[in-house]
């Protein structure tokens, strides 16, 4: 992006055009075609002005969009628009504590080569601990990052229902049907999606069900 912005600025200024750059909160910046330093120095100054600093902690991504439009025979408008997406946070309610879980029921829905539905319940403390550890480590998936993704429907989707020992404990369910992420609900309420780009949860479940 750094070279791309600089190249645009250079192309406008080398052509001998004055430029006007607009940015929210900063006001317009006017750069004349001539003056000390020449077109290259002005292009570099404009590029530095347009570039965003590194995203602060908690910000997932930031980008800048630059567009140009002629205002007259000697002036070109360069407009920059900045966007940022923040990282969602996970709630304490969705944290899985293996000691408080008595069982996990796993259901598999297969679409091909022929429809099939399978359900198994596991009470092994080791199995519950492995699944809980994997899910507790998953980072939250920003909605903006998933919005543009397009994934084919999985041939098999899995759903895990964790059953707690206490009646007041939240009911936690996890599904692998999301694109490159796992969907988690607490007491029926959708939580932030969890990154699982390599399908780690589905792989673990297949082995438990003897489908690996």
Word description of this protein:
Strand 5 (101-110) and strand 6 (116-122) form a beta hairpin. The chain folds into 2 domains: 2-86, no CATH class; 92-208. It has helices at 2-14, 38-50, 125-137, 143-147, 200-208; strands at 18-22, 29-31, 59-70, 75-86, 101-110, 116-122, 156-164, 172-175, 181-186, 189-190, 194-195. Helix 1 crosses helix 2 (38-50). It is elongated. The strands form 2 sheets. Strands 5, 6, 7, 8, 9, 10 and 11 form a 7-stranded antiparallel β-sheet that branches. A 4-stranded mixed β-sheet has the order 2-1-4-3, covered by helices on one side. It is of the alpha+beta class. The protein starts with a helix and ends with a helix. 20% of the residues are buried.
Q: Describe the largest sheet.
A: 7 strands, antiparallel
Amino-to-carboxy terminus distance: 43 Å
Number of helical stretches of at least 4 residues: 5
Structural class: alpha+beta
In the residues, how many domains can be counted?
2
Overall outline: elongated
Low-pLDDT ranges = 1-35
Secondary-structure element string: HEEHEEEEHHEEEEEH
Number of strands: 11
Tell me, rounded to a whole number, the average pLDDT.
77
- Taking all Cα atoms into account, the compactness measure Rg is 26 Å
* Binned strand content: 25-35%
Helix content bin: 25-40%
Give structural attributes.
212 residues; elongated; alpha+beta; disordered N terminus; seven-stranded antiparallel sheet; 5 helices; 2 domains; four-stranded mixed sheet
Task: Summarize this entry quickly.
With 212 residues, this protein is of the alpha+beta class. The protein is built from 5 helices and 11 strands, in the order αββαββββααβββββα.
